[in-house]
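Training component of the fellowship. As part of building independent skills, the fellow (R.M.) carried out the full modelling exercise for a liganded target. The chosen ligand was coenzyme A. The inputs are recorded below so that the supervisory panel can assess the work.
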Amino acid sequence: MIVNGYNSCKVADTAIIKAGARVGFRNTFCDYCVIHEDAIIGNDNYFASHSVIGSAPEHRDAIENNYKHQYKFLDVIIGDNNRINEFVTINAGAFRHTRVGDSNFILRGAHIGHDTIIGNDNTISCNALIGGHSEIENNCNLGLNSVLHQFSYMGEGAMLGMSAVVTKKKMLLPYNIYVGNPARQLKYNDYLIRKLEIDAITLNILIENYIDRYNLLNRDKDIK
Ligand SMILES: CC(C)(COP(=O)(O)OP(=O)(O)OC[C@H]1O[C@@H](n2cnc3c(N)ncnc32)[C@H](O)[C@@H]1OP(=O)(O)O)[C@@H](O)C(=O)NCCC(=O)NCCS
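Fellow's submitted model of the complex:
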């Protein structure tokens, strides 16, 4: 372990921080959390009991290559000020680093798949499952038990209702709410639009930018 900020952290007796993990300042590591060697952790994060950061990507080829050819998994990079609750799992990267930004609130039992990139200020509720290679911008809200197909892309301020199932190649437009299985658009996320004082012009620009990036991400991609 590289111990930059380790001495300023609260580390429970049974927390495991593996050699190779890089840890910033003032983090809290509760009992039985496991920080694997591929993790890079910023400052002021809270890892509750039994959270597991940087476990092997749940990707068959990556695991086989790791066994047979010592292929090294890529990092999990966690920013600052995140709350990561009990039994949350965040996989290491298989093809790119898995990233979690700042000030995210990740609740009990949520799973963040390999190669996923998460921005800032998101709420990821209990048992939400984020398939690998996904991208989630800022201020999103994933309701209890919601599920994202791998390679999903969630626009800023988008929300999934409880138990929503986001199927392959589904647009999740900024500041819109989606519910159901398969997920369908319910309405604008008016509460958040008001709270963040997003005006109509800004909203239109965000939606246009989202669609451009969505098309770029999905161009020529055969998503299985
Ligand atoms: C999606 C959500 C935000 C909508 O809340 P709301 O704006 O108050 O909407 P309403 O409850 O008035 O429901 C509006 C319609 O959507 C439907 N609906 C609401 N939530 C739904 C869901 N999760 N799945 C399917 N349909 C849903 C309602 O049945 C209703 O349909 P109807 O108009 O045909 O009767 C809310 O239901 C939700 O799922 N919140 C997330 C809760 C959560 O995960 N909290 C985390 C706690 S840690």
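The panel noted the following from the submitted structure. DSSP finds three helices and 26 strands in the chain. The pocket of coenzyme A is lined by residues 107, 125, 143-144, 161-163, 177, 179-180, 186 (CB under 6 Å).
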